[in-house]
Amino acid sequence: MKKHDQDYMKLQNRRTVFGIIKQQHPISRAAIAKQTGMSPTTVSRIVGELTELGYLVESEQVAAAGLGRKSTLIGLADGSVLSIGIELDRHFMSIGILDLQGNVICSDKRVRPAEEDLEETLRRIGAAIEELVRHHAIDRTRVVGIGIGLPGIVNNDKGGVVFSVQLGWKNVPLAERLKELTGYEVAVDNELKVRALAEHLKGAAIGSRRTALLGFGNGVGSALILEGEVYRGDMNSAGEIGHTTVDPNGMMCECGKAGCLQTYITIRSLLSEANQIRPIQTIEEVFEARQAGERWAIHLIDRALDYMAIAINNLVCMYNPDSVILSGELPDRFPGIHEEIEARCSSHFVWEPLRGSFRFHHSELSEWGVVIGSGLLSQNRFFQL
Amino acid sequence: MKKHDQDYMKLQNRRTVFGIIKQQHPISRAAIAKQTGMSPTTVSRIVGELTELGYLVESEQVAAAGLGRKSTLIGLADGSVLSIGIELDRHFMSIGILDLQGNVICSDKRVRPAEEDLEETLRRIGAAIEELVRHHAIDRTRVVGIGIGLPGIVNNDKGGVVFSVQLGWKNVPLAERLKELTGYEVAVDNELKVRALAEHLKGAAIGSRRTALLGFGNGVGSALILEGEVYRGDMNSAGEIGHTTVDPNGMMCECGKAGCLQTYITIRSLLSEANQIRPIQTIEEVFEARQAGERWAIHLIDRALDYMAIAINNLVCMYNPDSVILSGELPDRFPGIHEEIEARCSSHFVWEPLRGSFRFHHSELSEWGVVIGSGLLSQNRFFQL
């Protein structure tokens, strides 16, 4: 066997072992060997290397079940590697520092003025990181990088924002600029893709092999995780369901097409239609009006829920996932709609042969999903996972 | 390194080498080594083994460019492995015998009465195979299996037809039954999935990394090939776009939902609506009426083309493919609609940011795509590719 092949295989084996430890720690060397089919010697070598690098610790010995023998378990040195996860949205910025397990060890959330320009946003990201690191006495040498999740189309290879309607950005070399500013490696991705990754690794969809996540809020979108990896498509824009056509005779969308899904279900669209009736500032008011039995509000929200169920049907027909996760501001702020959407799906909105084919999950990481996913993305880059 | 790992790697290397030879033959050992990063010794060993099994031949030496040296090229022993590919549809059955390169070396196409029952279909498949093998003096020992592509939801692992509206089948253990009858290993899959595979390996989308294929005909569906592999989803029913909802206020579909894509574009739906106007037997008559300027026919076909463009938009938003292939009876029988659909896509039916993101292809294998894909599927099973 050639050197090249052996090196590649060593790297692969190391990834495999580290991946298993991350998911199943504490775990014994023997269990790793059993799962991977690697020899105990290979496993021991890899564990030794990773321990030397400071990523693993041996936890105390425990008695193996019923046999009286003792087995040493391998655990993660949680704080040996840290990363910074950031969610950037039109109206806020969330930031967290994550350990190796994806735990948020400290965090901050700040309002972002909608008119804030790029330079100011960059400056404030830098300041927020600085403050968090100082305030919590974080060891800077352990921070391996920054991950950022945001709404829009992102070139995740280069870390550039192709465009983001919500942030008002077009062709922003975000990773490059932020690396200049902070010195850290920066990974950038679409918010729903990292959120789905987080739910897969730490949240609602652990163990799922084909996870589809939908986001309903100021925007609408989806993401697919296949066998643990984000499905990106050719330009990292797979899952852009907001502009799938769900009624060619429907309302005009800002994109120039008619009847795009987003015209029926985003908070902005709903508010814009509600304001045909009377001045309304927040989506809460619309839900209150619905609660109070106002017909226009009932129509507006019921129609939105219908289209959410349609979005789920269309996604399920195309991706055939085993799990569907509902996320975003709307289900987060109005948890009652989960049930209403699910009821629509199981009555007749989802094509009958696929009706029982997937598990329905609520987002578990809600407010921190994007921060966690972004931070984990940054760690994955560091470990070249 | 453990024996287990080495065995796995040997198998992987063998697959890689064989795959390259299949795609690029004739090719030199040196070129294979260069592409794979394997050592010349490893490549020679694998080539030797495959030659011994009869799958490869050394073609005559050719002068390496400009150097005066000679280089031996490796080619496929095309006829060393044969497989039988079958397309089963409501109204016909096509059958072909394929060589290692996916060339159809002999074939037959027969009408299938719509009311034909399962037993009769099985009997006739067996007879058709028998006749083809005899008539063309095929060496039976070289036939490694049968592949069948059909419309419907197929359990491709077990080779069972979960259900097929077109064939009127539900829970048919097709592979098992046909193996009993013929003695050959049988692989069964959805027709569009094998067609997409064929176009990827032998047709319009060679070299594409994310190929989406659409089928417009008696049914409507799609398939996605990711990095050379069929994306199946959890139940092998990914790509079932026929029941995506494209207008919740639209026509009732036989599935019980309203506004399913298939209600606007399948031949059956179009004929059913056309018959509201006057008795019409074939889709050709509808196209002729359109040509003659009859308003109802213009409306019906234009609307169908609109919805085909919508289907492409929705597919492109969700899969973000690099290639989109149009296939099926409608584009095959009315090649002019290709241009009309493409024009719709590039004017405003496809979301602007994705408009230039994919190449548009016509199906190249048309009538024989499913036969070729099914035959290749059977060979892939044999070689465990």
From TrEMBL, chains A, B:
Keyword Cytoplasm part of the UniProt annotation: no
InterPro entries linked to this entry: ATPase_NBD, HTH_CRP, ROK, WH-like_DNA-bd_sf, WH_DNA-bd_sf
Alphabetic keyword roster: Carbohydrate metabolism, Xylose metabolism
Annotated Pfam families: HTH_24, ROK
KW DNA repair (keyword) present: no
Stretches assigned to the HTH crp-type domain: 19-69
Family label: Belongs to the ROK (NagC/XylR) family.
Physiological role: Transcriptional repressor of xylose-utilizing enzymes.
Name of the featured protein: ROK family protein
Source organism (scientific name): Paenibacillus mendelii
Lineage: Bacteria, Bacillati, Bacillota, Bacilli, Bacillales
